[in-house]
Amino acid sequence: MTKRFLITIAFDTIFAILALFSAYFIRFGFIPILNNMSRFEIARIIVFVIVLLFSSFLLEIYTYSVEIGKREYLIRITLSLVVSFFILTSLFYLTEFLLFGRIVLLVSLLIFGILEYLSYFIIRVTSNLPGFVNKVLILGTGPLARQIGNLITAKNHLYTLAGYFNCASEPVMVPYHNIISCEDGLCSAVKRVGAQKIVVSLSERRGVFPLQEVLSCKLSGIEVVDAPSFYEQITGKLLLENITPSWFIFSHGFRVTLALRLLKRMTDLFCAAIGLLLILPFIPIIALVIRIDSPGPILFRQTRVGEGEKLFNLFKFRSMRQDAESGTGAVWAKEKDPRVTKVGEFLRKSRIDEIPQLFNVLRGDMSLVGPRPERPEFVKKLTEVIPYYSERHYVKPGVTGWAQVRYPYGASVEDAIEKLRYDLYYIKNISLPFDIMIILETVKVVLFRRGAR
């Protein structure tokens, strides 16, 4: 979770409360005092805030990109307010103690939308001011430097490229007009281009790394990071090709404490139990439709690799023919897979086929959030060809995960590598707030049917 995301959430929380109180003042001529509110009135405010934040998250208002124009942003805000209105009115009709007056609700939503739209302009304006632009000087001119430079110029974040500094006999694989003169040394070059950050992107550091100059820049207040760490900050995944075992050892994160395990387990048990209770009335209908569509069992059991590389049986609603792998053995699913039944295609697109995995969560085989469990046949193959693949088994696999919400279904070794980048990023930054954000992202994936196969 980025600082920008957390700050935006904090401001929108304030905006929501301010909008609600302003609507009360416009309608009744006074502002409610928190000390005099009953617990039901406080509950109303909390629900109001949560719904507005959820709708904004659902419409991707918190997804910052310089490519999103003010018109598209206004459309997203308008749609999020419509979604909030329908959710709130549904809740208020179902539960009387949450009821707001119609004028208060409409005025508060309007004020919140205006405040949210104004904050967009503030972010865009301040992002272009000299004091707020994050200029990055890349140390190196080789293939790694080129990769980082292309990442910065991709126009999907707030970093701008100040240039490349060539301090070694690396092959020049970056645009020559972006190379900064090194006659006066690194510190002078940093001051000359006004860079706030140095990204060390040397393909080989031994004997060529300008230690004293980089140290001087660091002590002068310039942020210094290596290429893998910067790549992680920008993309939300790890740069596996340039990571060494020592990087894993000395980098922050990768700490799954006992307290975190207990907290995740309690959350898993509570959410899985609630989820199964909610879906229980629909299970007979799902079972009947599966049985009518094709012969075979309702539930599908498949061996998967879990925490500590222990094998367990994963449960799913059957979405393929009963003899799907009788002649092929274990193979990855593919687009328009002929083995998938008509009902199975809908179950997969809607992710309904994954619901029985809540039983795996209750049993302790899985967690709600974590790397997706893979089949042992694939794990054996991928461990042989992909470095650090086994490290994904240090935590429980999940019903959903960071890789699932950020990358479509994988059906090749290349896809497995890309998903591993996200899985290791999750393990490195594992926390309960991160899990909550992934669950919310999963809701978007399910609603918009992204990435299923």
Short description:
With 453 residues, this protein is of the alpha/beta class.
Total helix count?
17
Evaluate the radius of gyration.
26 Å
Report the portion of residues in β strands. 5-15%
Number of strands: 9
- Count of the separate structural domains: 3
Distance between the termini: 27 Å
Give helix % range. 40-55%
Main sheet attributes: strand count, strand direction, barrel closure:
5 strands, parallel
**SSE class:** alpha/beta
Biggest sheet: strands side by side, in what order? 3-2-1-4-5
What is the average per-residue confidence, as pLDDT, rounded to a whole number?
85
- 3D shape: globular
Compressed to H and E, one letter per element, the order equals HHHHEHEEHEHEHHHHEEHHEHEHHH
InterPro entries: Bact_transf, EPS_sugar_tfrase, Sugar_tfrase_EpsB_2
Membrane topology: Multi-pass membrane protein
Family: Belongs to the bacterial sugar transferase family.
Keywords: Membrane, Transferase, Transmembrane, Transmembrane helix
Description of the molecule:
Strand 8 (367-369), helix 14 and strand 9 form a beta-alpha-beta unit. The two termini are 27 Å apart. The mean pLDDT is 85. The protein has 453 residues and is of the alpha/beta class. 52% of the residues lie in helices and 9% in strands. The chain is globular, with a radius of gyration of 26 Å. The chain has a five-stranded parallel β-sheet, sandwiched between helices. It has a two-stranded antiparallel sheet with strand order 6-7. It folds into three domains: 3-127, no CATH class; 134-235, 3-Layer(aba) Sandwich (Rossmann fold), CATH 3.40.50; 258-448, no CATH class. The chain has helices at residues 3-28, 39-58, 70-94, 102-127, 143-152, 186-193, 211-219, 227-235, 245-250, 258-279, 283-293, 342-349, 357-363, 376-385, 402-406, 413-428, 432-448, and strands at residues 134-139, 159-165, 179-180, 197-200, 223-226, 299-305, 311-317, 367-369, 398-400.
